[in-house]
Amino acid sequence: MKQQKKLANLVFLCLFIIVISACSDTKTKSSNAPLQTNSVINTVKFINYEIINEYPHDPNAFTEGLEYYDGYLYESTGEYGTSDIRKVDLISGRVLQSQKLDAAYFGEGLTILNNAIYQLTYREKKRIYIHSYYFKTTGYL
Questions:
Q1: Do 62 and 80 form a contact (C-beta atoms < 8 A)?
Q2: Phi/psi class of residue 115: alpha, beta or left (left: φ > 0; alpha: ψ in -120 to 50)?
Q3: CA-CA distance, 93 to 73, in Å (whole number)?
Q4: Residue 23 is inside which H or E element, if any?
Q5: I want to staple 76 with a disulfide (CB 3.0 to 4.6 A). Which of 18, 26, 65, 120 is the partner?
Q6: What is the pTM for the complete model shown?
Q7: Strand ranges (DSSP E) for 1-141?
Q8: Are 123 and 91 in contact (CB under 8 A)?
Q9: How far out from the chain centre does Cα 5 lie?
């Protein structure tokens, strides 16, 4: 039995060495060869930006998802026990509506589609549906 195990380990080691050597690129291995740049790096275009405005925001909100929709900012916040979804006035930063998640959920990203806000949770792998007008939870998946 020990001999079979040793033979199996030896076969595995040989296969491992073959796979590793097959994956290496022996043509370009040279200690004196210059590093080759990736063609993608040469095609990346850098753009400039300018900050044109700043808006107030709740500094205690652990923002996980953010979407500007129909004149309002919709925000999903995270942290167990304090996660919520908010409808925020962009100019004042005032929370107009909010729906707190159950303490068992950690809120993540969100999006809006067909009058429903879809929010994802972190470890629970749930999708939460909230009606965008009434701001009430309508289901979990």
A1: no
A2: left
A3: 9
A4: helix 2-23
A5: 65
A6: 0.61
A7: 63-69, 72-77, 84-88, 95-100, 107-113, 116-121, 127-131, 137-140
A8: no
A9: 44
Q: What tokens were used for 25? A: 């690129």
Q: How far apart are CA 7 and CA 36, in angstroms?
A: 42
Q: Which of 115, 114, 118, 80 is nearest to 100 (CA)?
A: 80
Q: Where are the domains of the chain?
A: 63-140
Return the CATH number of 63-140, one of 2.40.10.480, 3.40.50.2000, 2.40.240.50, 3.40.50.1460: 2.40.10.480
- Taking a C-beta distance cutoff of 8 angstroms, is the pair 131, 116 a contact? yes
The tokens of 119 are what?
């929010």
